[in-house]
Every structure is written in structure tokens, then in C-alpha cells.
Write a structure and sequence with these properties.
heterodimer; A: alpha/beta; N-(1-d-carboxylethyl)-l-norvaline Dehydrogenase, domain 2; 2 domains; eight-stranded mixed β-sheet; two-stranded antiparallel ribbon; globular; B: alpha/beta; Nucleotidyltransferase, domain 5; 15 helices; 14 strands; 39% helix; 19% strand
Chain lengths: 325, 402
């Protein structure tokens, strides 16, 4: 290496007052399942460093592999170059230790709790662990849609720094994000999060604190109605999806979308919403319960309303329909 | 006159500080990774000594503040006070139909430039950030905008229009604007200086062959046509851009591959060109070394690149009713003897004949590479857009003070 003098840049400002850090230069994610991977990819693609916490080396490896597959798919569809993929992956680090979150300015909890009743306790525990290691300025968020952020943050020392934000996972083109302010959330924190959403090139939708936000409430009601139409024999599964897609110009039909989002997850959403509102329209349709019990969760188990190959491509209809595609 | 030239990209700022009266570059450098982890400022003094400044650089304004701080610092700087800077010249990519030459930046000018952000969404917004930053940091120092599109303003309407509904031109300004104007202008006028020719009497074709590439037909000192159009993807084959392609193929591919406009844009801008054909690289050196080993697709990529340039030379000779000077510039044009030789092959009928002995191994040097008897003077002229921006800035400031 040739002779290069190295200096700290702070000494060369005109006013010598620029000691602050770049906002959102490093973000943390706890739990790197489908949602966590999605957030990691979006943040990294927009130039941020990402560290994610998982429970085992295996899960870390799995997350890397899934990230790589998703990016490869984008390259195959001409949406990205090899160089960009390398850059995105190089900014994402997996870890088992919460201490690695310490210099993050934003940490998002995205764990996948298997059983509903444990969900809130588990998430509270995660929030506490995050708070132990990060600075008081660090913003803590949950990606959960049916958990109330005020309840989640109630046991923290700095409650004003908590928000809830919901990214959409079914398509990378869904450039929108619901942002929820809790009872304790400060104006400053909320505005910073809106800035974060803008930095990752999404439209922020401010949402009042309410289980299911806008998106999940609309979708669960739609899916239940679609199941009802199917059970009454009004139309076939494929036709119901077609009417929704072609007739209303949607990207996916309600059943297709259920398989993408995961029927296990939808079932939990519905349970939570029903508990919260007590309104039967959120009570999971028998069809959903049946698929959930049979562990036919959708694309990730290769079977749900439809059947899938390992690449997630539809190859036929599932047990609820004998239609030919 | 001391002039600071600034070129703001989306996450970088290049700068050069000129003392034009003394013909010196007092300092130059680059700020990179703005707003990201690991941002830095790399500064090179006139002596060649390099200094790396590491630390957080939040945005363009802070980047420019550090540039000014370094330039005026006792330890690494070259001026005692910022008042020594007489003016700042900015590279601005898109000047739309409004700006036909470099201008002094006023409130009205920035308002106009805001409007062109839609036409150059990747380039104009950071250019503007740089202008606003300088305005707030050193408001008393005049600023000048030098446009990539301005030189092509002389293109006649029959050359810049697309044959699509005229309403779209009126509605969105869909037309050919051309880019690399500062480079084409610099090398063509430099070529005239070297040849001691009157620009008003010669017909020049300039080939700016870098990562992006364009050719320009310059008749009697004015650009009358250029290969880039509404966006920089039209025209020559580039590192990763396709250049000219049948629209029908574009819509067909979008249907078949089920992709939208965004992915299609990435496909033709980043997956195409030399990279797309060779499947190996966008860099000519890598392609040449693979071609030497017999890689068929690399050989094809080289042939295609040369062929496309040759077609444009023929077209522009026809458009101008002849050609007197052919200039190569840009990374590839300045350094690749193979490309220059490949392009000029079989063009003797046009009066183009290069001297292989001079051409071979010539890198980054002003030189006439054609044979004595060649009717057309073929030249290599390294481009210097920063100097051109500095000179424009100086001229505008001088005209103000007169």
C-alpha cells in the first residue's frame, strides 16, 4: 500500500459540531424467519448494516440460505445483479448473542412464536433482552400485527421508544409499511421511524393502535368470506381466486395469498383478533382450522389450498378441491 | 481565479480545486459512502500526497462541509480562508430543454432544476443537494451549473424527436437529449486546438467510450446529433447497457419473462451490453484477456461493440456530409488500442486510416494516430470534464464582473 495519511474526519468540519451518528446506519433484527429475512434484505439493500439474532447456528445458516435463494430469484428475473446480491449479503451478519445489538440505532423484533398464549410473554422477554444491551436512544419495534405495542412496552424502562411496524412479505413490490404509535411512543421516535420507512423506500401508513392494523383486518375478513363462499358451493376455489385477481386487478387471490402468508400464521392472527374484538367475523373458518390441524400451512409446507413444488410454484390444487388447473 | 468543481452522485462527491491562472490543480478527491457505514473522504494534494479522512458523513451537506474544511485546514489544505475560492462549478446532468449553456445559479435556476428531477431521477437530485449545500455553507460565493445535456442543445428538431405521438413530447418532454456533452465539447475543441483548425470549418465525430458510451456529430462547432437519447441507454453498446434495441423485443421480453418496468430497466441497464453478451464481465480488459484464450462470446462482444461504433461513424459522416476529424476519448477510447483499431477497420473509403505503430500501446495521451495520407485526422484526446466545468465557471464569473 502506498503512503496514505489517515485522519479522523471530525477534526475537519467547519463548525466542529458534527459528532452525531448516521441515523439508521446499523439495525438489529431479533428472529430471522420469513419476516426477519424480509426486513434484513430491505434494510441492507438500502445501504444499512444489519445484525440478526437467532437461536442456533443452524437457524442462522438457514436464514442466509433463504436470503440467498430469494436474491437469486430476483437476479433470475432481471431485478438485480450478482454484484448487488453480494453487497446486500455482505452487510447482513447473524449472531447468537444479544450483545451484538449494542451499537444498533434501531432493533426490530420479528420472532415467530409457535403458540398464541406464549406469544406476548416471549415477546416481552425479547424486548427486555434488547433493552439490556442497547443505548437509551435506540428505537425498539415489533413486526407483530396483532399484539398491542403499549402492552409490549409497558415493562420497559424507556417505553417512549417503542413502535410497531408492519412490512408486507408477499411481494417485494409491496412498497408500503404500516407504522403504529403506542400510548407511550414519543413524537420524536415516531418521526424517526417514519424517516426509516422512507429510507427503505416504502410509503409509511400511520395507523392508530389497534390489533390487526388495517391490512390484517381487511385480509382476514376477506379470507373468511372466501372460505364461506367455497363451503356454500357458490364457486370453486380456483374461480374465487380468479374473480378476485382478474375482476378486481389483484396480484393474488385470497387462497393463493393465504398459502404465501402461511395458514398457521393466519390462524394465529384470527385467534388474536377474535380474542381482541369478540366479533365472529374474525373467527377462523372451519376450512382454515382444518388445514392448520393437518399442518398444511401453504407454500412453505408445499401444500395448503394449493399444492406446490419445492420452488414454490403451484402444481395443483390441495385436498379441499379436486379442480384441474 | 480559484475554482472548486463539484460532481455530486447519489452517495459520492467528486471534487477538484483549480487555480486556472496558474494552470494548476491544487487538490482533488472524493467523498464516498455518504450516509452509510464506513464513509470517508479521500483527498489528494498537489504534491500527490494522499490523505484519507475517516468518519461519519451523514449527507451531502456535511460531505461538502468537510471538503471545504480540508481545503482550508492548515494541516492538509491549500488555502488560508474559504474567501479564496472565487466560485464553485457544479456538474448537473440534466438541463432539460431550458438550459443551452452553463449558467450562474440563482433561485430561479434551482427552481427550474427541481423540475428536471423527474427526467433524471438518479442524477439531478444529488446534483441539487450539492448546490443547496454550497449555498448554505458559503452563500457569498457564486455558483455555476454546467450541464451534460447543454452541448446537444444545438441538435435540430429532426434529429432529437422520436417518431411517436407528438403529444408525448409536449406532455412529458419525451425527446432525445443526449449526455456526455461536457466531454464531447472539451475533446472537440481541444482537437481543434491541437490541429490548429477553425472549429467553424470542421466536421468532427467524437467517441466517448467509457463505462457509459456515446458518439457525437459536431458540425462547425455544434453538436447536431448524438447517440444517447432520452436516457443514457440508447446508442452504443456499453459495459452493462444494451444501447439500441428494437422496442418490439423489449415488450416481448417483458411479456415472456413476466417483468415490470423496473426489472426491465435493470435488465437493459445492468445485465446487458458487454456483460450480457460475454456473460463474464463489463470490463474490456477482462473481456480481451478471455477473448485471447479463445472465448467465443467475448470475441463476439468485442466485434459487436466495434461494429456499433463503426455504424454510428458512418451515419454521422452521412448526417454531416463528411467528416474531417475522428476523436477517441473516455477510459476505453483513451486506453484501448484494440478498440480504436477495431473501430477504424475498413473505413478507408471514408478517408480514415490509422497508423498502427502509433496506435499500438498508446494510452491516455493526446496524439494524432492516423497515417500521414489519411484524409480524416484520427486522434486520441483524454477528456477532462472538470477542467471544462472550471473554465465555464470562470468565464461566467468574469462576464459578471465586467
Amino acid at each position: 500500500m502506498e503512503d496514505i495519511i489517515i485522519e479522523p474526519i471530525e477534526d475537519f468540519g467547519l463548525s466542529k459540531k458534527h459528532q452525531q451518528r448516521t441515523l439508521f446506519s446499523k439495525i438489529g433484527i431479533v428472529g430471522c424467519g420469513k419476516d426477519g429475512q424480509n426486513i434484513a434484505r430491505i434494510a441492507s439493500a438500502n445501504g444499512m448494516e444489519v445484525v440478526f439474532i437467532e437461536l442456533s447456528e443452524d437457524r442462522i445458516q438457514n436464514a442466509y440460505n433463504r436470503l440467498s435463494i430469494v436474491l437469486d430469484r430476483r437476479i433470475d428475473n432481471w431485478g438485480m445483479t450478482q454484484g448487488e446480491k453480494k453487497l446486500i449479503l455482505s452487510r447482513i451478519k447473524g449472531s447468537l448473542d444479544y450483545k451484538d445489538l449494542k451499537d444498533c440505532d434501531f432493533v426490530i423484533e420479528a420472532i415467530r412464536a409457535e403458540a398464541s398464549e406464549r406469544k406476548i410473554t416471549e415477546r416481552k422477554e425479547v424486548f427486555r433482552k434488547i433493552e439490556e444491551v442497547v443505548t437509551p436512544e435506540c428505537i425498539i419495534a415489533t413486526n407483530s400485527t396483532t399484539i398491542i405495542i403499549t402492552e409490549l412496552s409497558s415493562e420497559l424502562k424507556h417505553r417512549e421508544r417503542c413502535v410497531s411496524l408492519h412490512f408486507f412479505v408477499q411481494s417485494p413490490e409491496a412498497r408500503v409499511c404500516e407504522v403504529v404509535k403506542g400510548m407511550y411512543t414519543s413524537e420524536e421516535v415516531y418521526n424517526s421511524v417514519l424517516k426509516f420507512v422512507k429510507m427503505v423506500d416504502r410509503q409509511a401508513i400511520p395507523v392508530e393502535e389497534s390489533a390487526g392494523l388495517i391490512s390484517i383486518r381487511l385480509y382476514t375478513a376477506l379470507l373468511n368470506e372466501a372460505c364461506e363462499v367455497l363451503l356454500e358451493g357458490v364457486g370453486t376455489m380456483v374461480d374465487i381466486d380468479s374473480v378476485w385477481k382478474v375482476g378486481f386487478g389483484m396480484r393474488f387471490g385470497p387462497f393463493e395469498l393465504a398459502d404465501i402468508l402461511g395458514i398457521d400464521k393466519i390462524n394465529r392472527w384470527m385467534e388474536n383478533l377474535y380474542t381482541e374484538f369478540g366479533d365472529p367475523r374474525y373467527m377462523a373458518s372451519p376450512v382454515i382450522k382444518k388445514l392448520n390441524r393437518a399442518k398444511r400451512f401453504g407454500v412453505h409446507t408445499c401444500c395448503g389450498f394449493y399444492k406446490y413444488d419445492v420452488n414454490g410454484k403451484i402444481v395443483g390444487t390441495g385436498p379441499l378441491s379436486n379442480e384441474k388447473l | 481565479m480559484k475554482i472548486l468543481v463539484i460532481n455530486c452522485g447519489s452517495s459520492s462527491i467528486k471534487y477538484q480545486f483549480f487555480s486556472l491562472d496558474e494552470n494548476r490543480v491544487l487538490a482533488k478527491g472524493i467523498v464516498e459512502k455518504i450516509g452509510m457505514k464506513g464513509s470517508f473522504l479521500k483527498h489528494e494534494k498537489e504534491s500527490g500526497q494522499k490523505v484519507l479522512f475517516e468518519g461519519e458523513i451523514l449527507d451531502h451537506k456535511i460531505g461538502i462541509e468537510y471538503i471545504l474544511g480540508v481545503l482550508s485546514s492548515p494541516k492538509h489544505g491549500c488555502i488560508k480562508s474559504l474567501n479564496e475560492i472565487n466560485a464553485v462549478g457544479h456538474r448537473v446532468v440534466h438541463g432539460g430543454e431550458k438550459f443551452s449553456e452553463s449558467v450562474l445559479i440563482t433561485e430561479e435556476v434551482t427552481q427550474e432544476l427541481e423540475k428536471f428531477c423527474e427526467l433524471a431521477p438518479l442524477h439531478n437530485p444529488p446534483n441539487l443537494k450539492g448546490i443547496y449545500a454550497v449555498r448554505s455553507l458559503i452563500p457569498e460565493i457564486p455558483q455555476v451549473a454546467v450541464f451534460d445535456t447543454a452541448f446537444h442543445h444545438t441538435m435540430p428538431q429532426h434529429a432529437f424527436m422520436y417518431a411517436i405521438p407528438y403529444a408525448l413530447y409536449k406532455k412529458y418532454g419525451i425527446r432525445r437529449y443526449g449526455f456526455h456533452g461536457t466531454s464531447h465539447r472539451y475533446v472537440s475543441s481541444r482537437a481543434c486546438e491541437i490541429l490548429k483548425a477553425d472549429p467553424a470549418k470542421v466536421k468532427i465525430i467524437t467517441c466517448h467510450l467509457g463505462n457509459g458510451a456515446s458518439a457525437c456529430a459536431i458540425k462547425y462547432g455544434e453538436s447536431i446529433d448524438t447517440s444517447m437519447g432520452f436516457t443514457p441507454v440508447e446508442g452504443l453498446i456499453m459495459g452493462t447497457r444494451s444501447g439500441d434495441i428494437d422496442m418490439g423485443a423489449v415488450t416481448f421480453i417483458m411479456d415472456k419473462e413476466k417483468i415490470g418496468t423496473k426489472s426491465a430497466s435493470i435488465l437493459f441497464n445492468k445485465h446487458s451490453g458487454l456483460l450480457g453478451i460475454s456473460g463474464i464481465a463489463s470490463d474490456m480488459r477482462e473481456i480481451c484477456s478471455a477473448a485471447d484464450k479463445g472465448d467465443e462470446r467475448c470475441l463476439l462482444a468485442i466485434k459487436m461493440l466495434n461494429y456499433r461504433i463503426r455504424k454510428y461513424i458512418g451515419a454521422y459522416a452521412a448526417a454531416m456530409g463528411g467528416v474531417d476529424v475522428l476523436v477517441f476519448t473516455g477510459g476505453l477510447g483513451e486506453n484501448s488500442d484494440i478498440t480504436r483499431a477495431g473501430v477504424c477497420e475498413d473505413l478507408e473509403f471514408l478517408g480514415i486510416s490509422i497508423n498502427n505503430q502509433i496506435n499500438e500501446g498508446l494510452r491516455g495521451e493526446e496524439r494524432i494516430i492516423s497515417n500521414e495520407h489519411s484524409r480524416v485526422k484520427v486522434m486520441v484526446v483524454p477528456t477532462n470534464e472538470e477542467l471544462m466545468i472550471a473554465i465555464d465557471t470562470q468565464n461566467i464569473i468574469r462576464s459578471l464582473t465586467k
